[in-house]
Every structure is written in C-alpha cells, then in structure tokens.
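Handout for the seminar on molecular recognition.
Each group receives one record of this type.
Step one: identify the two inputs.
Step two: read the structure output and locate the region that could contact phosphoenolpyruvate.
Step three: write two sentences on what you found, then compare them with the reference statements printed after the record.
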Amino acid sequence: LLRDVDGPAVLIADELTASLAAQMDWSRVLGFATDAGGRTHHTAILARSLKVPAVVGLRELSGKVSPGTPVIIDGTTGTVTIDPASADIDAAQRRAHRRRPAPGAFDGHDAPPTTQTADGVAIRLEANLERLDDVPAVVEAGAEGIGLFRSEFLLAGQPVERLTEDQQTEIYRDLLTAVGARRVTVRTFDLDERPLARWAGRDRREQRAGRRGVRLGLAHPAVLRTQLRALLRAAPAGQLRVMFPFVTSVEEMRQAVAILDHEAHDLGRAGAVPVGAMVEVPSAALAADLLAREAAFFTVGTNDLIQYTLAVDRTDERLSDFYEPLHPAVLRLLRLVRRAAARRRIDASVCGEMASDPAMIALLIGLGFREFSMTPSAIPVARRLIRDVRASEARRTASAALRLATAAEIEQHLFDALAAGHRAPRA
Ligand code: PEP
Ligand code: MG
C-alpha cells in the first residue's frame, strides 16, 4: 500500500487522485510525477500544499519507469530525468537541498489531537465511519470524534426491520463507549429503496433519485422511530449527536425532529441529543438561513451537494469531468451555508470527499469552515497542512475565488495564491 512505502521514494503514477493523495505518507514521498494532468491544476495544488516537487501531464511516463529506477523530478523546470548520470544527481541534490522546507513539519500519528492554523485558529478534525471495525483506525488517526457515522452500513444488505431497537441500542452504546469521550454524530439511515424489502414496493425498477434519506424515513416512520429510540437510549453512554440525511425542506426537518422529540419525551430523555441536518441538496443550502433555525448543527455533504447542483450522477464515470467541486455554484452554496450557520451561531462541518482532499482544505477554511470529517487515514495529512494555512490569507484567497467565473480560473487562482504564500516571508 502507498501508505506503507518504506523509504524515501518518488511516486510515478498514471494519476494521483484526491483519495490516494489523502492517504499517502508524505513524510516519505520526496516528489511525484503523473501521466495525467492537463486541464486541472488539482494535482499541482496538491504538490504546492504538500511542498513536494511534482511534474504532471507527462502522458506516457508511468509506462517508461520501472520500480527502483532512479529519477530526478524537477518541479521548477517541469522535467523528469530517468536514470540520470551521477553528476546530474549531485547537481539535483544540491538544488533540492537549497529548497527543502525546514524538517519537523510532519508529525503523523504522534500529533496531539488538536489542530490549529498557523495563525492560531482552532480546527476540529473528525472521521467518517462506515464499519465498526474501523473504530481503532479512527482513534489511531487522532480524530477528535466521528463526524459522520453512515449508520445504514449496519444493515449490510439485510432488510431494515431485522435490526431491532434493542440490537441497535447495543450497537450505538458500544460505539460511544469504544471512542471514549469523543463526540459521535450518527446519521440516521440514508437509504434509497433498494435494500428495503418491504419498502421497495412491487416494482423494483421504480427506484427514483429522491426517494431516500429522511424523506423515505418520514414515509415509513416506524423504521425511523425505532432507530431514534435506540439512539436516545444509547445517548447516556457518550457524547452523541443525531443528524438527518438528505433534508430538502424545513417541513421535513420539523417532522423528523417532532418524531425524535416525541420518543425522547416517552423515554424521559427530552433535550438529550443535539439534532442536526445534513446539507447535501441544493434546496437545503439555498434555504440554509431558514433551516438553521430548526437545526442544532449542519453537516455539509459535498458528495451529494455537488451531484445535485451540477446534475452529475456521482457514480457515472462518463460524467466524471463534470463533477467539479470548484464550480462557482458549489462554492457559492458552501458560502451560503457557512454564513447561515454563523448567523445562528450553529456549527457547520464539511464531511464529503471534498473535506478529505488535501488540495481543498485551505479553501474550505477560507470559506469559514472550522470542522471537517474525513476518511480516517486522511487526518494526519490534513493536520499537517492546516498548520501551514493562515486563516486570514485563506479568507482573502477564498473571497477572490468567489468572484471568478469558472472552475479553471478558480483552480489557477488557488494555485497562484499558494505559490505567492510560499514566497512571502513568514513571521
Ligand atoms: C455526502 O453526500 O457528501 C455524504 C457525506 O454522504 P454520502 O457520501 O454518504 O452520501
Ligand atoms: Mg450524501
């Protein structure tokens, strides 16, 4: 695994995706070069953020370099020399030595579980969790909590009625206990109709995009009620928050909260858990000021927010070029959500893949977000990067980005801002 590279090495790949980049041990990767590159500056932004030399867009490179071959990657000239002469290696080492950042920037697993930007802004880093087996990885990664527990994974394909209230109570209690004092945000089942034997109706072909999340839960309140009762019963075991997925309106939020309040009252647990809304549908983002009055917190799910804003099925690879986190419409929605939350003084975190992407973290901080929930293995890299970010600079960069008209211009701007930041003297 790339995470386990055992010595200083350079990475030559056809493509370096955000999820791969997030999981690599960058203390051991001296530089990288990729075949892909072209239009997007994404990889270049990564290299700048991580302060490693990189050359992208070399097309056939990965096929030409076999493992173990010495290479020189010169990010300044944009060249890769395969199997260089020893005089070239000496010269390159002297150049690299002059440019290398001060050591000690990377502290991996040993880092304390709090994170601040270079100018002292506290950032909370939590983990997304699907499988209970991954709880040790969450703790080891130094997560301050679980920002998104995708509870539907508990069903593992079985009909939802099979998981009783008592069984669920025990699972949530175990989870809260296993993470110690850390906060856990459980998302109620975010299902569409497929795994639900009885909900599916006669014709399984009739599965539609919008029949999912809290909307489906409200259509079948017994299932939602069972889960909420289990969560309320488990709540005293730790620091629990509950959130509803796929909220599209204030009405849905009110109805779901009413069910929770009713069960909480019944169990003598009124007010026991903060209840939040996932903001992952454009209607929720656009009406975030209204929704903020009904929710104790927001969690922005960028995966769905991007897919529904840009009309791109996130699972359709033919459309992957259109799936663009830096689309101006996406950034405007993120700003709206953040502002609405700030006005009501409620927390707003980002938990989609965008939060796991090292190239996006400074931008999200610049937009005002202070909490992120990501793949556990992405946390050490995020923590290291955040310590180099100046929130005040990030805010200026984000404001300027929001005035640009295209994703390409925004990418270029983020890239240039990073380059300028690296040249500027640090106090
Ligand atoms: C999201 O939509 O961004 C999200 C985190 O939820 P999921 O990926 O589970 O739909
Ligand atoms: Mg989602």
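Reference statements: The CA atoms of residues 145 and 167 lie 23 Å apart. The mean pLDDT is 86.
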